[in-house]
Amino acid sequence: MLAFISRNTFNVGRRSLSTSAKQNAKVVVLGASGGIGQPLSLLLKNSPLISQLALYDIAHTPGVAADLSHIETRAVVKGYMGPDQLKDCVKDAEIVLIPAGVPRKPGMTRDDLFNTNASIVRDLADTCAQVCPKAMLGIITNPVNSTVPIASEVYTKRGVYDPKRIFGVTTLDVVRSNTFIAEAKGLDVSKVNVPVIGGHSGITIIPVLSQCTPPVSFPQDERDKISVRIQNAGTEVVEAKAGAGSATLSMAYAAAQFCFSLLEAMAGVPGKIECAYVRSNETEAKYFANPILLGKEGVDSNLGVGKLIDYEVGLLKAAMPELIANIKKGEDFVKS
């Protein structure tokens, strides 16, 4: 007997998406030929929520687009290559995702990537600010703690800044936390949800285990161990790949998950919550990641950090100096 799978829904990890949510969305991936961009584009091509998928990079984009265009799903794929084609790529976009940039290598921190990736994000954001200022902008390029402020400053200079529409995509920190805790406790990972607050590098990543669903508890030494593993999970992948790349596949999965939630929220589906790094008044840091209720205009409401236990308060205090310095570095880059 043959089993036929309906194409009216698309399942990706923790999501089951209905085609009724959004019928004509144009999503753009800037950096689509790279290690994150290609698997991200594949996941997006597979979604019934997207009717147009525009791919941009400085090389190889026509080939990536041709390959994806053979997949039997509704999104029409078009590739754009080189700065001369960037404006056409982002025209009429509803969501722009930016994974462009150089990846980390062994021994590098996210901050080591700053000089190269800061310029890339600045230039891409400037084009988006001119051509599609109302599009939702999801920044994946590291160091996110600095690249989101860079994009915000660029939009401010252009006079089109809307803090509700610019996101640092930190979903991977949540995905990792859910995975590691489910493994440690023998839980069904599809039912585990751990908010992660702060930023998106090292000690600025603060998993709030006390707010995990379902509730979990750890002895202090185990809490320390799993928190540090979550904070250093990117380095774990970089070292395991031994110079051959960074966390590309898991990041693509997480970015797609964020994009689908955002598309559904923009279509009016209620209750779409994702952790994201946004302009914030929750702490002394001008940008901060925590659970966000998404809506038609981007950030519907900032749900804040909730109640933290003393251990998590300590992690937050330890993170703030670095996070604030990362933000200032991004802002100063644009201002200078």
UniProtKB/TrEMBL annotation:
The keyword NAD belongs to this UniProt entry's keyword annotation: yes
Catalytic activity of the protein: (S)-malate + NAD(+) = oxaloacetate + NADH + H(+)
Keyword terms: NAD, Oxidoreductase, Tricarboxylic acid cycle
EC nos: 1.1.1.37
Domain Lactate/malate dehydrogenase C-terminal, residue spans: 170-334
Example of a GO MF term: L-malate dehydrogenase (NAD+) activity
BP-aspect Gene Ontology terms: malate metabolic process; tricarboxylic acid cycle
Residues given in the record as NAD(+) binding sites: 31-37, 57, 117, 140-142, 251
Highest taxon listed in the record's lineage: Eukaryota
The keyword Oxidoreductase is annotated on this UniProt entry: yes
PANTHER family hit by this protein: MALATE AND LACTATE DEHYDROGENASE, MALATE DEHYDROGENASE, MITOCHONDRIAL
Family: Belongs to the LDH/MDH superfamily. MDH type 1 family.
Protein's recorded name: Malate dehydrogenase
